[in-house]
């Protein structure tokens, strides 16, 4: 088995997952014009509705790994991905557009836990950590390609924007030739799987809130630039691509970042993300806005693969897909909840501008990150004292 080609196949699947719902973000302002009777929250559902369907289908994907090969499940996922993705640009009403987005979510639901569990299937130790980082980098590279392409296509027509999902056909070809077709996961008769560790639920909850905050960038950026008079749909695609570009860099240097920061890796990156959101929320300068988006993207690009790496180490290999499905479902629940929760916060505070949303997220995340740093330092001190005694 050629590991380079195998890795290429795994990473190609990762191109399609995390940013799938956000791929058409640059076209949101134009879609809102095309459907003037739709509310702002309904327009945002175009990006977040896939997340609702992703959640149950991640668990179905986990279950089906015991009935069929992961390679077969990947092709099923790609089928729904293309139908739902491209179909969104062909429908006549906002209701049918939302139906297509739900179908897209089914496809991503099949793909997401498979893409991360394949790393645990074929790699161990530091190579697994490095490959998880590369999976994250692939997620972000896919985001860059999708955001830049959709930003350019949105200048022609919002309908043409949905053609970016055709990239899945290229992935299907790569997977067909280079991903081995292993037998379904086999659990010996009489074997009782232990319940998933409680730590996984903590990691899942953390992922929920992290993505809830992060997703305020793709769901709001086009509308934000419009509100503030800072730029167009094409520019929104470029700004969002900055976040994914820095996330790509973060994934590539993940192993070194983990070695350098050790137990402080997550709290330190939360500080970085909070700083990015505060810059975005308080600046009126496009250059500073780009800096803020970049800081936020790098922090998220380190935290997400670090969490998935820890998840893969908490359970035996036969439960990896199940564990990934749990944490992945919380990730996409955070995506879906993002506009609903943050819009509700704005209404409660009687501050419904998107600028307030970014300021609120930045302040809240900074408070959480400071508490996380203090707690992590105390755990470290207690551990050091125990070793000394």
From TrEMBL:
Residues 1-380 form the Major facilitator superfamily (MFS) profile domain. Residues 1-29 form the signal peptide. CDD domains: MFS_arabinose_efflux_permease_like. Keywords: Cell membrane, Membrane, Signal, Transmembrane, Transmembrane helix, Transport. Gene3D superfamilies: MFS general substrate transporter like domains. It is found in: Cell membrane. GO terms for molecular function: transmembrane transporter activity. The keyword Transferase does not apply. It is a multi-pass membrane protein. The chain crosses the membrane at residues 45-65, 72-90, 96-123, 135-156, 162-179, 200-223, 235-254, 261-280, 286-308, 320-336, 356-375. This is MFS transporter.
């Amino acid at each position: 088995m050629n590991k380079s080609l195998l890795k290429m196949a795994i990473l190609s699947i990762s191109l399609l997952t995390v940013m799938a719902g956000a791929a058409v973000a640059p076209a949101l302002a134009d879609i809102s014009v095309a459907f003037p009777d739709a509310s702002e929250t309904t327009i945002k559902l175009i990006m977040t509705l896939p997340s609702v369907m992703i959640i149950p289908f991640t668990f179905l994907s986990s279950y089906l790994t015991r009935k069929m090969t992961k390679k077969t499940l990947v092709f099923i996922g790609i089928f729904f991905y293309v139908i739902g993705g491209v179909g969104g640009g062909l429908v006549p009403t906002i209701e049918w557009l939302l139906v297509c987005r739900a179908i897209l979510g089914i496809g991503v639901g099949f793909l997401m836990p498979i893409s991360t569990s394949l790393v645990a299937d074929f790699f161990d130790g530091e190579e697994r950590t490095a490959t998880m980082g590369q999976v994250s980098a692939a997620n972000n590279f896919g985001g860059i390609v999708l955001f830049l392409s959709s930003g350019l296509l949105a200048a022609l027509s919002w309908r043409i924007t949905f053609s970016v999902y055709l990239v899945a056909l290229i992935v299907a070809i790569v997977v067909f030739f280079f991903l081995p077709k292993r037998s379904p996961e086999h659990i010996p008769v009489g074997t009782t799987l232990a319940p998933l560790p409680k730590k996984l639920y903590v990691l899942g909850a953390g992922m929920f809130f992290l993505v809830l905050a992060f997703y305020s960038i793709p769901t709001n950026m086009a509308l934000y630039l419009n509100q503030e008079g800072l730029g167009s749909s094409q520019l929104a695609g470029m700004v969002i691509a900055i976040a994914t570009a820095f996330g790509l860099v973060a994934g590539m240097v993940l192993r070194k970042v983990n070695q350098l920061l050790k137990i402080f890796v997550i709290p330190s990156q939360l500080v970085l993300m909070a700083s990015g959101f505060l810059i975005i929320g308080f600046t009126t300068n496009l250059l500073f806005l780009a800096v803020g988006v970049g800081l936020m993207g790098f922090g998220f690009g380190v935290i997400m693969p670090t969490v998935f790496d820890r998840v893969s180490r908490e359970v035996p290999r036969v439960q990896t897909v199940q564990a990934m499905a749990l944490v992945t479902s919380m990730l996409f629940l955070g995506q879906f909840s993002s506009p609903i929760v943050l819009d509700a916060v704005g209404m409660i505070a009687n501050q419904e501008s998107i600028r307030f949303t970014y300021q609120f997220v930045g302040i809240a995340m900074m408070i959480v990150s400071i508490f996380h740093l203090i707690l992590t330092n105390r755990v470290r001190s207690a551990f050091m004292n125990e070793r000394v005694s």
